[in-house]
C-alpha cells in the first residue's frame, strides 16, 4: 500500500491511500470515486465485510459445508496420526500416505497410533469381518452346523433348520462290544442282544440337556437284557444306579439334567 497525506488545522496528517498491492499482480489505484474494492470470494470461502462507521474491513472465512467451501483451523488434536507438525496442515499426499490404497467397497481397519489404515478387501455375498485377538479381522462366511443351512446373498444371510432331512449319529452295539462306553458323539444306540446281554456305560457328566436314545433293534432284550448304567455306576438313572431294558423292541430316551439321568 502506498499513501500520501494532507495536514489538517491541528497539524495532524490525514492519510490518503494511493494504491493497494497484493502478494502478486501490480499495484491497484482507487477508482474515480477514490475507492478501492476488496471483494470476497465465495468460491474460495472468503467473506469481506465493510464497516463504514469504524472505517474497517472485516475479512473472515465461510464455515465449510458440503455446499460451501471454507477455511478451517484444525484443532490441536486433529494433527496427523504420526507427527507433531504445529501447522496442522493436511495435504492430499499426507492423506494418501495415511489412508493407503483405496479399494472399492473395502472395509478399513486401523493399524495402531503410528501406522496407516489398511483394508480388508471387498466382501463377497454373506461375508462378515470375524475378529481374533491381536490380529486384523478376516472376511469369512458363517459355517453351518448339523442340520443347518446357510444361504448367502447380496447384503443378506439366511439361516434355516433342515427339519425335513434331519440326520443323527447312529451307533450299533452288540454283545461283543459289551460293556460299551457311550461316547460324547453318540446319540442313537441300536443294540443287538441276539448274541448275549449288553451293558451300556453312559458318561457321568455330559452337557446338561444332552439326550440319548437306546433301542433293542433285534427284539431279543427279553431273553438277553440291555443294562443301562453310568461309568462306575456313580450317577443315577431315575434314582437307581441302572435301568434294565427287558421288553423286546423296547426303546428309551435319556436326558442328563446336570446331576443325573432321567428316562422319558
Explain what you see.
The protein is mainly beta and 264 residues long. It folds into 3 domains: 51 residues, no CATH class; 40 residues, no CATH class; 94 residues, Jelly Rolls (Sandwich). The chain has 1 helix and 20 strands. It has a 5-stranded mixed beta sheet, with no helix packed on it. It has a 4-stranded mixed beta sheet with strand order 13-15-17-18, with no helix packed on it. A 3-stranded antiparallel beta sheet has the order 1-2-3, with no helix packed on it. Strand 10 and strand 11 form a beta hairpin. The protein starts with a strand and ends with a strand.
What is the secondary structure topology, with strand pairs?
Layout: E1 2-7, E2 13-21, E3 27-28, E4 46-51, E5 56-61, H1 92-99, E6 106-109, E7 118-122, E8 128-132, E9 135-140, E10 148-153, E11 156-161, E12 170-174, E13 180-181, E14 188-192, E15 198-202, E16 211-216, E17 226-230, E18 242-245, E19 251-256, E20 261-263
Parallel strand pairs: 12-14, 13-15, 14-16, 15-17
Antiparallel strand pairs: 1-2, 2-3, 4-5, 6-7, 8-9, 10-11, 16-19, 17-18, 19-20
User: What series of H and E elements makes up the topology?
Assistant: EEEEEHEEEEEEEEEEEEEEE
**Main beta sheet, described?**
5 strands, mixed
Radius of gyration: 43 Å
Strand order of the largest sheet: 12-14-16-19-20
Provide the domain count.
Answer: 3
Instruction: Fill in the CATH topology of the largest domain.
Output: Jelly Rolls
What is the overall pLDDT average? 83
